[in-house]
Amino acid sequence: LKLEITRQEYKRRTSIVLDKMKELGLDAFVFWNNTSVFYLCGFSFIPTERPACMILTKHGNKIMYVPRLEVEHATQNQEVSETISYPEYPGAIHPMENLAKAITGMGLATAHLGSDASGYSSTKGYRGPGLTEVLPSVKLTLLPYLVEEIRVIKSSEEIAFIRESARWGNLAHSLLQKYSLPGYLENEVSLRATLETTKAMVATLGDSYNPKVSTGLDPHVGFRGQIGPNSALPHAIDINAVLQPGDNLVTYACPRIGGYTSELERTMFVGEPGPEQRKYFGFMKEIQETAFDKIRPGKPCSDVDKAVREVYEKHGLWDYWRHHTGHALGLLNHELPFFDSGDHSVMRPGMVFSVEPGIFVPGLGGFRHSDTVLVTETGMEMLTYYPRDLERLICR
Amino acid sequence: LKLEITRQEYKRRTSIVLDKMKELGLDAFVFWNNTSVFYLCGFSFIPTERPACMILTKHGNKIMYVPRLEVEHATQNQEVSETISYPEYPGAIHPMENLAKAITGMGLATAHLGSDASGYSSTKGYRGPGLTEVLPSVKLTLLPYLVEEIRVIKSSEEIAFIRESARWGNLAHSLLQKYSLPGYLENEVSLRATLETTKAMVATLGDSYNPKVSTGLDPHVGFRGQIGPNSALPHAIDINAVLQPGDNLVTYACPRIGGYTSELERTMFVGEPGPEQRKYFGFMKEIQETAFDKIRPGKPCSDVDKAVREVYEKHGLWDYWRHHTGHALGLLNHELPFFDSGDHSVMRPGMVFSVEPGIFVPGLGGFRHSDTVLVTETGMEMLTYYPRDLERLICR
Question: Which residue in A8, A39, A90, A339 has its CB near the most CB atoms, within 10 A?
């Protein structure tokens, strides 16, 4: 089993960027965004105070500029043509000055460069000048979203990874449900499911299984504080709750495969739900199905959210509305475009979205399923497949 | 037991900012940096495509501007004076336009504002204009590091949290060592230690235990891929390695308490280490002790790193040098200033640093302890206290 992006795929991605560079007359492009670097060469690093970037020349060379501590790590990667390093941050010479020297050494001191940002930025203690401050003769064109826009359409290799992620998300979620019993701590349930899933993934996928990016403990599966009434907060944070009979649970299971994620979320109940819980669960399911029905290529993303909003309207649910219907995903857990009434991007085959309209009832709890869907030539395909009906989501 | 930042402490922090604002004649300050928001009002949110910020008025009011989905979450927090929300991103009206209306509604459309950034930024699909584009009559002064610089000196409450974090880091690391046996998967060991530590923390600290910030599964304890020869990469990434007899291990244990972290890292061995491993371990320990000896208030941070560099020189270890001696930490795992030969910031009582010079031998492995130390009036105090000697770091 091979869970690696092929060299042809890297070549395909790179050639889209090179075409754009040619069109704009750029001699090289400096990528500061670490997701873009990973997308173009498969190198993932932990961002800190130390600047790092990839320089893509118009000839297609990929030059990593990294702190000394990342040299061996960057060089392991066969997509990287060359690695240039500086000792440390802040160091005797600022890393941006060293970068200016390196770029000058490439004959690019007066070139037309593209970049996704004016320079490195980090909240982890970094301060420094922008590219044009250290290279005053460079002509700089900022294109912050160049790679983000290419990432919108997933290739067959990417879809295969997201599909594989959804498989393991299903296992992780089954285990989460199995261990969601009264009296257990939130993180006790999450960690048991995480541990068993990890062991199954490694035993099944062997050496080919590697999350590829630093995500802390992967696969992530759990509740993120969405337990009982606290689940009425769509972006709740761990509260170390103990599961109680009758609790609403809102879950997530999003294992990484080769850097890619899928998104599976379910509303579950600890034991038998009450009539109010059944009612809102039913509305939520109806709203999500309304969304599925509206997903088809050639139509604007906003169509999906608008149809969903009509169901909130019909059932008088506006007090319980908190967020739009969904977002694209892939290397990041949220990517553009969005299933939002204000996002008129056209759905195209190869786009992958979460579909997760929710109902959040203060004092009672949250009701949200999230499924990952692929836009196809004719409509959509569900990539996640965990049961969605209430009876099978009661934890007993 | 109370593990909450007091209102007096929030008041103290806020008054430092207000004084600075007064000095500069600012009518209000817009904070986009979510660590700064958390520092000033204790509200932690998950950054996505949806902009969020806190507006601090010169009168000390803290107004949260958030998407609809965060309203109840923000309002829970008693430090927040007021919550203003917009429906969604991108929505019918861009959230930055709504923010401009809100700021205009506060009578600040032609005011002198400070901000830590020109606007919201995110890699998760957000695009939008800067503050001055939506508020053209505002005078904007950018102060990106205002709160970061205040955070450098930790208060007694912060030090108490970091100390508490170090206690649980010690437990987590003891369990990690206990389970680090040949034949076990990297994440199997990490997750067992994480699970037991979580249960002990909740049972001991009760409802007062809350990581406060979204960090995925906390407490974090593990190896991050630093197993066997791969530990020669200081910023390795999980590889799902199976522990083998003779492996070098480089660990970490950094539980969050009230949002604060400490940093404990150790070099361990799976069974009896060989003579090469003993030799480099000895050098590493000598280098770390050299650093401890140099930490005292009134001296520049660079002194510590310079002394450390002399030991690399003395033993001919430059081939194995990869990074500076350490970094400050607190709310983030890396903060300024740095124990770096180029950082001449003066050490002051209340600063908290990691001390972690390392030796990284390709093909053999990494050798690094990291301890968290507090700069005191007279020298330093170790906050982490896990054994540092080789014999007690052999996993049997």
Answer: A339
- Concatenate the DSSP letters of all residues of A86-149 into one string: ES-SS-SS-HHHHHHHHHHHTT-TTSEEEESSSS---SSS-----HHHH-TT-EEEE-TTHHHH
Q: ipTM for the complex?
A: 0.95
Contact assessment for residue B48 and residue A323, using Cβ atoms and an 8 Å cutoff: no
- The predicted pLDDT at position B207 comes to 75
Whether residues A323 and B68 touch (CB distance < 8 A) is answered with yes
B235/B322 Cα distance (integer angstroms): 10
In angstroms, the CA A80 to CA A78 distance is: 5
- The number of angstroms, rounded, from the C-alpha of B121 to the middle of its chain's C-alpha atoms is 20
Neighbouring CB atoms inside 10 A of B1's CB total: 9
d(CA B65, CA B36): 14
CB–CB contact B123 A199 (8 Å)? no
Q: What is the pLDDT of residues A348-390, one digit of tens each?
A: 999 999 999 999 999 999 999 999 999 999 999 999 999 999 9
Q: Which residues, other chains included, contact A230 with Cβ-Cβ below 8 Å and sequence gap of 6+?
A: A236, A239, A241, A365
Cβ atoms within 10 Å, residue A206: 11
- Burial class (CB within 10 angstroms; exposed 0-12, middle 13-18, buried 19+) of A23: exposed
CA distances from B243 to A212, B186, B248, B269, B369 (A): 19, 7, 9, 10, 19
The single residue listed with the structure tokens 């000196």 is B153
Which ranges of chain A does DSSP label H, i.e. alpha helix?
Answer: 7-24, 34-41, 71-75, 95-105, 131-134, 146-150, 156-179, 186-205, 275-294, 301-314
- Closest by Cβ to A123, choosing from B33, B89, B321: B33
Cβ contacts of A196 on chain B, cutoff 8 Å = none
Q: Which DSSP helix (H) or strand (E) runs through B22? A: helix B7-24
Distance of CA B294 to the CA centre of its chain: 23
| Nearest CA distance, B74 vs chain A (angstrom) | 10
Would you call B217 and A194 a contact, using CB atoms and an 8 Å cutoff?
Answer: yes
- Give B231's Cβ-side CA count (13 Å radius): 30
Q: Residue B219 pLDDT more than 90?
A: no
Dist. CA B250–CA B370, nearest whole Å: 10
Q: Say if the Cβ atoms of B322 and A91 lie within 8 Å.
A: no
Global confidence as pTM: 0.96
| Separation CA A183–CA A185 (nearest Å) | 7
Residues of chain B contacting A236 with CB distance shorter than 8 Å: 73
Cα–Cα distance for residue pair B378/A179, rounded to 1 Å: 52
Nearest alpha carbon to residue A194 among B12, B395, B221, B187: B187
Residue of A241, A250, A231 lying closest to A176 (CA atoms) = A250
> One-letter amino acid identity for B190?
S
